[in-house]
Protein 1
Amino acid sequence: MALTVCDLQPRFPPSLRHKQSLSNARYVTFHFTLNRNLHLPLSPFLPTGSRLGDRRFHPVKFTSVDGLSIQNNPEHRELQQAHQNEELRERLRSLFETFRSILPGGSWWNLSGEYVDVVTASKPVTVWRALRRMWQLVANDRWVIFTAFSALILAAISEISIPHFLTASVFSAQSGDVMVFRRNVFLLVLFCVVSGICSGLRGCCFGIANMILVKRMRETLYSALLFQDISFFDTATVGELTSRLGADCQQVSRVIGNDLNLISRNVLQATGALIYLLILSWPLGLCTLAICSALAVILLRYGQYQKKSAKLTQELTATANEIAQETISLMRTVRVYGTEELELGRYKLWLEKLASISLRQSGAYGFWNLSFNTLYHSAQVVAVLIGGMSILAGRLTAEQLTKFILYGEWLIYSTWWVGDNISSLMQSVGASEKVFQLMDLMPSNQFISEGLKFQRLTGNIDFMNVSFYYPSRATVPVLQNVNLSMTPDEVVAIVGLSGSGKSTLVNLLLRLYEPTDELVLLQILIDGFPLKELDIKWLRERVGFVGQEPRLFRTDISSNIKYGCPRDVQQEDVELAAKEAFAHDFITSLPNGYKTVVDDDLLSGGQKQRIAIARAILRDPVILILDEATSALDAESEHNVKGVLRSVRNDSRTKRTVIVIAHRLSTIQAADRIVVMEGGQIVEIGSHRELLLKNGLYARLTRIQADAIA
Ligand SMILES: Nc1ncnc2c1ncn2[C@@H]1O[C@H](COP(=O)(O)OP(=O)(O)OP(=O)(O)O)[C@@H](O)[C@H]1O
């Protein structure tokens, strides 16, 4: 194991500072937390005697001097004793520090220090703002909310009346007043029935409102994400976004169905109980109110803490998801490089952080419960004490005190419920911050305005002095002053070293990236019109694209070939396209033929490319872009497929504009023109023969590839 000097953190008792034996020592042994002993010269670590007692030196124990163990050497026994004393003091100090830190307000509860790195700069959402946003989402179905709240009010009034009639019934029976007893029992039964029915209705309506909220929230969020620029997906990860759509939306959904429902019910009941208590006995009522106010202050602090911890939990969950998603999607690489343990460790690290937050949340919940219980029992003791004295003084009857105790209990419990649900509400509001932030993202510029659509697209393409850099790397120019024109019926091949900007050129043509400099979109012309002015959906319907690593959806082969096809197609069309892409034979050899469900992992690279090529052929595009689209095909298939791609289009009997990006230079020799790129610039243009005669980069690359084959 390699250890650097930074790893060496010796620990010396202060008393060693003056020991001649140590000052003269040349070698010391350090016992590491790694359970390894290392003999090292003392001097580099102890340049002056004053460093010996430095408390920053923690995890390493000083065990011997010049090879003599401190334990066995009488000369050093005193040093050992001092060392042990110091260790004990250190332990006690750390125990005391730990105890102090876990008391309310202590450093252990601080969430912003250790985890500050995961808290993103999302705009804090206040409870009102979050509720307003939620209301906007469910406003169309406001009748559900209104019904729910009406039922809630009726249920609360009924429930709060029950203890009164319960006590009144008992005491009227005791007094022998039959009429009053009958009336009280009748009202008691009535309120019980109303409370039961209304509670059921309330629960059902709030449940429906909840479902509507989650659905709309997910719809809005998903639609906001789908219309983002591709550069957004370069920075946001799949794990994070799916976490927002899944867990965070679910958490936010508790607001209506659970939190608001229970908060409203309990606030109503607590208010009713308080009024009743004040009417019964105002001194007793004020005492109970004081206890409830203390409870409310504690619950407010607790709620704020829960909001903060919920936000952290949400961020940590998203990061853990991100890691799991990345590892699972790269499982083959993980397996080949044997990094399962490493990946497990990476995941566990975030789980531990999550657990640590949960621990604090549970601790805070414990403190909250402790406060509640203490205050609850204090209220009972106060009621019995003051109430009992009032009975003795003849100012209160036993019936009144019984009612008081019942309603006092009700008030405290309602306050507790409100607190509990406010903390849950705060958690949901905390979780909503990132969700609302994503929901507020404006769609990419290309979806905002509707552009031009022509009767017919011809397929003329012009790049006029185009320079471009990716938004995520604003200082690195990827394309510089690119001038290039392509005409219909032409096959243009783009070649060049890796990273020279070939794919970027077609990314811009497909408008996958919105350049920060809008001029770029005016410098790319399609049939003489700037790309910026064209309707992008209309244009994309007329473009076929096969990328370097085609991805398939987890559905049957037929649907994968039909995917995104702008016209109605029959199964025969699908099979024809598959035949032209030389995919038909392997598809029919699969167990369910065209109905075989595939995904990215169930087919070979070449088979996936053939399906992607069939998809492009089926669209019958005016402009066809092949970015390393046949790299995984065998030579014969590649030759045949290329022929088909150049062939006559179905409708207009004209050829299409074909752009081919290829590294295998032998496959593009027949192209009408070959464009050679280097460092984001076009350095050569011409036919295969012309470029060979030029003896430039293309000729050099061709020679290198020929040598490699030879
Ligand atoms: N999304 C992106 N964000 C930032 N930089 C990018 C992005 N995509 C590509 N680049 C950078 O732009 C440069 C050109 O990349 P591009 O993919 O166009 O090269 P290429 O010639 O197609 O390479 P290859 O032949 O390997 O596919 C590279 O330096 C690359 O790192």
Protein 2
Amino acid sequence: MESGNLDDGRGKTATWIDQYRLMYDRATRHPFVLSIRDGTVDISAFKRWLGQDYIFVREFVPFLASVLLKAWKDSDDDSDVEVILGGIASLNDELSWFKREASKWDVHLGGITPQKANVEYCRLLQSLMLPEIDYAVVITAFWAIETVYQDSFSLCLESGSKTPEELMETCKRWGNAHFKEYCCSLQKIADRCLEKAPGDVVRKAEEAFVSVLEHEIGFWSKSSGES
Ligand SMILES: Cc1ncc(CO)c(N)n1
């Protein structure tokens, strides 16, 4: 058994969160998210984020499909496919939710130009969809992408938060306990794969994790900021 230098019996993913704590906190405690939590959020920033995230989630569909395909081909545990399929199923519901929410806020999803940070994030997804990228790398990225939103929005649901009532549904979408469980399932899968992966694959997964954090920070800033 290989034991990494920071490995104290926890999974690799938990180790990386600690190791990149500053960046992780910048991704999960972004000023935009904090403004939702303290009730000072600028509604036009929220509407911009909504339109940009819809574009991102549409790109997330083929990414998830590619993760599913790799799990089906390369995973040694049948339940991986079920967890990922569950994620794909809820994406279907999520896209409908975006359309409903957008019409509620008078956001026209058809006419939105993706921000540069969004285009770059989608490009990262596309690079991870390539067949030569290992399952361990993409499942790690997938876990990180979902977990950043889970951590961010659950913050807005904590007791003492002043999240405006009309944004509660958005926060519950990613901040709810069921979504947290789903993120934990993804984390267990990622940790299991990373434990068995050769060193160069683990290094690539770590890079993908850091890259997701960087892109999430950029996404929050640019999607909620002035266009
Ligand atoms: C940018 C971004 N990251 C993560 C998620 C979670 O699905 C999302 N919807 N959008």
Protein 3
Amino acid sequence: MEDAWSNEITESLAHCGYYIKTNALPERLIDELTLTAQDSKPQFQSAGIGRSDDHQINQVIRNDTIHWITGTDQAQAIYLNEMELLRVAINRRLYLGLFDYEAHFANYPIGGFYKKHVDAFKGQSNRVLTTVLYLNKHWREEDQGHLLLYNSKGSLIKSVLPDAGTLVIFLSEEFPHEVIPTARERLSIAGWFRINTSTSDKVDPPT
Ligand SMILES: O=C(O)CCC(=O)C(=O)O
Ligand SMILES: [Fe+2]
């Protein structure tokens, strides 16, 4: 994580609340993360939203499968380390008090989507910043699966092609977004920088 890069990210976040960059990370790292994601496909599971007994409802809202990243191989470890350096840089410049980072691979099958949602409801979540890194070589317009980013008034502000190496970061509470149905299998890493919401009777994160 170069200073110039973390400066660019923090300035963009301070200025407009989001950051979108193609080829944000070295191609080799993207390739290795892609291989890791493909290798761990047998471990991907249906993504939940909130409680697991809402599973059927979830399928109407999103139908990707996910696998949490734990840093078990070199590519994952390098990625998590980059995000850790970014966390520290953001805290130093924007005073967000980010406490940790959680991330999972996501796989959208052909026809996969994630309807319009926010990743955090104001004041109700410890998710402060959302990150999405795409792992799909040579994505074309006709492959669809765009990420659409809206402002808090509901106007469309960005349409992002999920092409390999593109990184999107935005304030989780401020930007509703959706994944439109994809015409090609679509791999990504979605992650969240969080604040610590521990109270006296609840330890966060759970151990
Ligand atoms: O993959 C994307 O473009 C966005 C995914 C997303 O919104 C999420 O996982 O919360
Ligand atoms: Fe989201």
Protein 4
Amino acid sequence: MALYPLPTAIILNRITPFTCRFFPKPLSSSLFSAAAVSAATTATLPQHLSYGPSLYKGHKSSHQNSDEENFTRVFDITALRVPAEQCFSLESKLRGHLLNWPRIRNIARVAGDDIDDELKEFIGNDISTDDETLTVLERRIYGKGEGDGERMCSVLYRDKLAKTFNSIGYVKFENLAKISRPKKKKWKREEKEGNGSVRRGYGRSDMSMVEVVEEEGSGDEDFRGLLGDDFRTRKWSGSTRLLLLDERYANKGIEEMPEAIKAVLKEHNEESTRLSFEIVRCKLTLLYNYWQMNEVLEVLLPQGMIVPSAFETVGHIAHLNLRDEHFPYKKLIAKVVLDKNKPKIQTVVNKTDVIHNDYRTMQLEVLAGNHSLVTTVVENGLYFDVDLAAVYWNSRLATERQRLLSCFTNNDVVCDVFAGVGPIAIAAAKKVKYVYANDLNPNAVEYLERNCVRNKLERKIEIFNMDGRRFIDSIFASEKARPITQVVMNLPNDAAEFLDSFRGIFRNKHADKQFTLPRIHVYGFSKAQDPEFDFHEKIRIALSEVAFEVQMHKVRLVAPGKWMLCASFVLPEIVAFAK
Ligand SMILES: C[S@@+](CC[C@H](N)C(=O)[O-])C[C@H]1O[C@@H](n2cnc3c(N)ncnc32)[C@H](O)[C@@H]1O
């Protein structure tokens, strides 16, 4: 990620270690200027950040080789080490005292907390009842000479240990030179298995990591060096887990723990001297992947700036609607959106202009990711290929399309005058008898054809590429066309103006012949105080007649005070037969 260099500098200056200082964002509009960096001042941590994880809290990591590492925060916490088999019951007992941070499991696993399978075999399953086995094992681990219970000198012990474990084929101790061990690369591969899940037994994921902080001078450094990091200088305890305690208890001793925790410790330490119930100090590291989009952006953008938190998606494309104030940071914002929404999102675009062309296509600028604007949208089990650069698509209308479809029956013949790539026409074709779909945009028609085939509905749809007015004329005049029962006119800016095309569509039909008056569903916008009345008036003017029993449906607010509406009514007979 090479996009953050300068904002990173700001983070470095604005976030201090664990002292819980909060640096307000520089008011300067230049996030990148040195002035902005030095403008950072300290203040106390605001109330809403005083609890729970925050980028404004914790220590910064000592590794800061990449921009992402600048978002690493290390938190000192305390944990209760408990036997693995009891951790779930204790978790529910102690829930109110546990860390309970979002996306962090209260039960953590760290290196060395599991007994190796081979060792399990060696000591048997029931370690707590077999005292002799345990004593022998403890001698091996803590370096006491068998028989006398005294400590051996390091050299002798090391030698003995190497021989002992070698002879029984015990290969887990990574630092024993004589024993072959898997190559580093292989370990790495194992760490991330297929779906990205983490290697068993290690408290590291791509979001967070828990490590036990070793006490200094515990006296067994020699053996740790020999046996590797998995070797723990604590009494033998079988498989254990860490129950991460609430941040209030960080760096606290047993006396300061709540009664519930003290009771657990007391109860078990009385019961057994072998099982490990102990308080340990830990480091919880939250990595870049842990933080959510808005948390990262909040740190990167100047204080007071609205953090873009929502975007529309069309297939693999995230579609932002950035404000003017965001423009200097558009690439930065897009990169974070991409990072935080991978792999679903592969491209981030911003709308550069309001839609004002005939084909209703958007002017888009690709800000991050791959530059292809051809994508596939799945809506209600149907597949739609879309080229956002050349055709219209709006995922927000999915619910409205469903509502409209619910008005159709399997006896209907639908005519979609402004069909685009076919979200209404193709979905209707699945349900109704037949569909006539039209669009003026040749690109939309190409995708409409493609989508019909893709959804195996090409036999139920006939496609046209002409102006809507001409299409209405010709489809109703055609002798071959089936009698149309439903007409959809989804071009909200202008569709009402096309309604005059229905005047006289049956003028050449004999009045005594059977005919079907189509039900029209026309979309429009209104900024009026009473949008329904206003739209009704537009329809009356376009038809030069009053349509009765008009059902008005408010689709959604497209801008403050601007409604998108759908009016549904049966074409008045007087209009259809007008001369
Ligand atoms: C708002 S889009 C709706 C498309 C589709 N119904 C949907 O929901 O995605 C309007 C469509 O009408 C088409 N269009 C614009 N003017 C037209 C005209 N005069 N005649 C026919 N189609 C037109 C545009 O190309 C565009 O695809």
